[in-house]
């Protein structure tokens, strides 16, 4: 039986990914900071008789990651698939976000992924097999206010994943980056709430997310893609997911840096009109 360890499974993409792997016959180790809040998840596991085991792990902590992964591998053996999904979001202007906000985003989204990867990589390298799937986002390609801090963490994740893929391919270990667009998760809905920023960008992007979520893309779509990657033999590195993911990436690529800055610095009327014309979304 194949095994998978998935981080950040308390809700959203992580939870749906754990269920997808469990339904596909994997023995799944679903990790989260607070398993005590996973009652509904536990009931679903039981009702479907899935081989999913919930474990407490805080990816921000060296000790927590080491203890959890050591316990799992000592009891159950090597892990075939690692899905680094745990992530947090903070939004706001560079001026208004605190340094603690910047640090916490990097601690979870970037260093958390590294902790888990480094804990499992020696065994994968020894066994000459394995698959590491890192959940990034379109924001790993596109930096827009008020998501500068969040994008920075995902840019970093993309960069180190690309280097990692080069290092481990000779050991038959596949690395993939999953890049969702706007997905109907709590994180996306939190962003859709207008803030009280002195800058206009928070309200604008709040409107963009709210408009997009009127026709929501479910997290199951991302979960299915992650499972597909794990089951495949593909060495493809990047995988945009969702109807708006590749269009967003192409949209940014169609502009040079100065045009991108100018568009985001435009007045409200011009900005909203551009979103309407480009994506047929009324973000007002």
From TrEMBL:
Q: Which GO terms describe its molecular function?
A: oxidoreductase activity
User: What organism does the record attribute this protein to?
Assistant: Gelidibacter algens
Name the family: Belongs to the short-chain dehydrogenases/reductases (SDR) family.
Source domain of life:
Bacteria
Which Gene3D superfamilies does this chain map to?
NAD(P)-binding Rossmann-like Domain
Task: Give the protein name, as stated in the record.
Answer: Short-subunit dehydrogenase
Record key words, sorted:
Oxidoreductase
């Amino acid at each position: 039986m194949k095994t998978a360890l998935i981080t950040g499974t308390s809700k959203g993409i992580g939870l749906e990914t754990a269920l997808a792997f469990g339904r596909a016959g994997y023995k799944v180790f679903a990790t989260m900071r607070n398993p005590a809040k996973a009652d509904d998840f536990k009931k679903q596991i039981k009702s479907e008789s899935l081989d999913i085991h919930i474990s407490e792990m805080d990816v921000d902590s060296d000790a927590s990651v080491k203890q959890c992964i050591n316990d799992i591998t000592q009891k159950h053996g090597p892990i075939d698939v690692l899905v680094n999904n745990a992530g947090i979001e903070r939004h706001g202007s560079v001026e208004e976000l605190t340094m603690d906000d910047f640090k916490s985003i990097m601690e979870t989204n970037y260093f958390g992924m590294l902790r888990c990867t480094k804990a499992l990589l020696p065994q994968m390298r020894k066994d000459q097999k394995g698959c590491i799937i890192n959940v990034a986002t379109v924001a790993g390609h596109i930096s827009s206010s008020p998501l500068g801090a969040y994008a920075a963490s995902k840019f970093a994740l993309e960069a180190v994943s690309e280097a990692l893929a080069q290092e481990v391919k000779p050991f038959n270990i596949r690395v993939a980056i999953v890049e969702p667009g706007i997905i109907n998760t709590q994180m996306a809905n939190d962003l859709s709430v207008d803030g009280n920023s002195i800058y206009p960008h928070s309200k604008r992007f709040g409107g963009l997310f709210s408009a997009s979520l009127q026709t929501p893309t479910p997290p199951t779509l991302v979960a299915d893609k992650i499972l597909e990657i794990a089951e495949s033999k593909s060495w493809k590195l990047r995988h945009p997911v969702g109807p708006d993911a590749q269009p967003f990436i192409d949209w940014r690529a169609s502009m040079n840096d100065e045009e991108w800055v100018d568009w985001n610095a435009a007045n409200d009327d011009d900005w909203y009109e551009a979103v309407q014309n480009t994506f047929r979304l009324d973000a007002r």
